[in-house]
Amino acid sequence: MSTTPPIALTIAGSEASGGAGAQTDLKTFQQLGVFGCAALTCIVSMNPKANWDHRFVPVDPQVIADQIEACATVHSGIDAVKVGMLGTQPTIDAVDAALERYGFPIVVLDPVLICKGQEFSATMAVDNALRERILPRATMVTPNLFESATLAGVEEITSLEALKDAAKRIFDLGVPNVLAKAGPSLGTGTALDVFYDGSALEVLEVPAVGTERMHGAGCTLAAAVTAELAKGATPLEAAVTAKNVVSASVNPGMRGNIPFTYVWQGSYQH
Ligand code: PXL
Question: Is 216 contained in some domain?
């Protein structure tokens, strides 16, 4: 006998310590009853000797293509794909070509723009490539405040009105569903995100759990959206469930020998 759970593929970086990236995505998929597979785009090793800076090594673009080919061929019906950290232009080229080739039905883009290990000079070109090539392929995008400002082309976002405006601008770039995340950063006492699909503009709020930085919260949110879409939820339903998954995963969260808390997906109950 065999079972056929929904299947999700994450195209993301490895964060070795298990707090973010592909490791987080796979745990989130599993927690939500979705079979996960992963194509690694880069290897991140946080450096305990340099303020936990991110040592970043890109995976060879051909190897990225090979991994996606293996996933797409083994699993004939990948229900949804999450795209996380890409980081370099050759990586974007490889992922762009694979998305074109396989035509996955649902693509959730977590537009991770900055990794501490990358050269700043490289990031502008990479940001533009991400906006021009990968963003239009996304069914849904989940930018944080900084990423929303960058994608929307505004200086900074410090209010709910500005976040709503940015969500609309990002929608106008060609993404049918935008989940623009503020989390606790607008000082509302809640973890607040804005969902926009061209007609509905919803402010999604849950009680904030502190203001401390939570490693992996963004990855968990986007992975949970991906899993829920793979199961057939609507984008708004997926966003609502994903926020509940993040709330459960950050409270109480998990602590290691590092100055910020980790998410722990295992405490979420369906
Ligand atoms: O949380 C953003 C992120 C995504 N992907 C990888 C990371 C990080 C942050 O550390 O390492 C691989």
Answer: yes
In a domain, 269, yes or no: no
User: What pLDDT, in 10s, does the model give residues 133-169?
Assistant: 999 999 999 999 999 999 999 999 999 999 999 999 9
CA 41 to chain centre: 14
**CB of 84 closer than 6 angstroms to any ligand 1 atom:** yes
The closest alpha carbon to 61, from 39, 83, 38, 37, belongs to 39
Please tell me the distance between residue 85's alpha carbon and the centre of ligand 1 in angstroms.
Answer: 6
Q: Is residue 270 part of a domain?
A: no
How far apart are the CA of 54 and the centre of ligand 1, in A?
A: 9
**Which bin fits 24, alpha (ψ -120 to 50), beta or left (φ > 0)?**
alpha
pLDDT the model gives residue 260:
85
pTM of the model: 0.96
CA-closest candidate to residue 68, choices 155, 10, 126: 10
Domain region containing 26: 7-264
Residue to mutate (ligand 1; options 46, 85, 91, 113; most atoms within 8 A of CB): 85
Atom of ligand 1 minimally distant from the CA of 42: 12
Q: Could you give the residue ranges of the DSSP H alpha helices within the chain?
A: 21-31, 61-74, 89-102, 120-129, 145-152, 160-172, 217-230, 235-250
Q: How many structural domains is the chain composed of?
A: 1
Asked if residue 187 is part of any domain, the answer here is: yes
**Could you tell me if the CB of 25 is within 6 A of ligand 1?**
no
CA of 87 to the centre of ligand 1 (A): 10
The CATH code of the domain that includes 22 is 3.40.1190.20
What pLDDT shows up at residue 118?
A: 56
Token pair listed for 143: 């930018």
Task: Report whether pLDDT(172) > 70.
Answer: yes
58 lines ligand 1 (CB under 6 A): no
